[in-house]
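Title: Comparing notes on inverse folding

I've been comparing how different people in this forum approach sequence design from structure. To keep things fair, I'm posting one structure and asking everyone to reply with a full sequence. Here's the target:
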């Protein structure tokens, strides 16, 4: 069941989202060849705590860290570790913040130094897919309109969308209804209503859409070993349209 939020509650989720936006404004300075994904995780965890928040991922279903940091062929949910970033990698950083119990969720993919043209294009297409999905999130539309817009854009550029992981409702807890596939058909699925708060999050593979989970039960990787990118914003449906809550 979808739990819609009042304007006041959306404002409070937006306060959590402002902390998120500051993180994504500042984190690029932490990303360079030679740093470990653990160092980035620690920096983000401290930032969240200094602002009075809590990392929403830590302890969620036993997840051990504050963020997910996925490199190259890792799609999502990779656990920060002593892995050292190197020039040419792309790195997806996914963060959840609880501030006073109100939760925001966002992700972005960044290049490490100079990266290949394919990786640059993958990042660009995935970011644009997110914004095209967000544009469809409005009263009068349905959840399928979001996934349709994302899938169309991605496939037009000869990339594929991951079909076994989804966006989701968010705000009172990390994962709420509705489920938001990154594929779909127009005019299908649940109606989008005033007060919904949605985490829209396309995961886009440069090659085929097939993914698998590594034996650590968390890390999702592409089966063909080609790179993958991930962008996510938390949006609130306010006055009929999507308001991005995780940007400045
Ligand atoms: N942002 C991720 C998602 O929506 C959450 C990571 S799962 C966790 O799927 F366990 F790390 F929290
Ligand atoms: Co999410």
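Reply #1:
Here's my take.
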């Amino acid at each position: 069941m979808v739990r819609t939020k009042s304007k006041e509650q959306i404002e409070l989720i937006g306060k959590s989202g402002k902390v998120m936006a500051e993180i994504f404004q500042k984190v690029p300075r932490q990303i360079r060849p030679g740093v470990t994904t653990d160092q980035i995780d620690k920096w983000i965890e401290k930032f969240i705590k200094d602002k009075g928040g809590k990392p929403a991922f830590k302890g969620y279903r036993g997840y051990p860290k504050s963020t997910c940091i996925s490199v190259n062929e890792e799609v999502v949910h990779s656990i920060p570790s002593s892995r050292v970033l190197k020039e040419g990698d792309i790195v997806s950083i996914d963060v959840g913040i609880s501030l006073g119990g109100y939760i925001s969720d966002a992700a972005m993919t960044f290049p490490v130094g100079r990266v290949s043209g394919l990786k640059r294009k993958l990042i660009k297409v995935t970011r644009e897919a997110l914004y095209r999905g967000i544009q469809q999130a409005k009263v009068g539309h349905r959840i399928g309109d979001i996934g349709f817009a994302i899938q169309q854009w991605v496939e037009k550029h000869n990339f594929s969308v991951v079909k076994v992981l989804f966006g989701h409702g968010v705000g009172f807890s990390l994962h709420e209804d509705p489920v938001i596939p990154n594929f779909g058909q127009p005019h299908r699925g649940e109606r989008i209503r005033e007060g919904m708060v949605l985490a829209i999050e396309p995961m886009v593979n440069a090659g085929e859409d097939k993914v698998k989970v590594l034996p650590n039960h968390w890390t999702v990787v592409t089966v063909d070993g080609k790179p993958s990118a991930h962008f996510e914003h938390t949006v609130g449906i306010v006055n009929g349209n999507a308001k991005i809550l995780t940007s400045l």
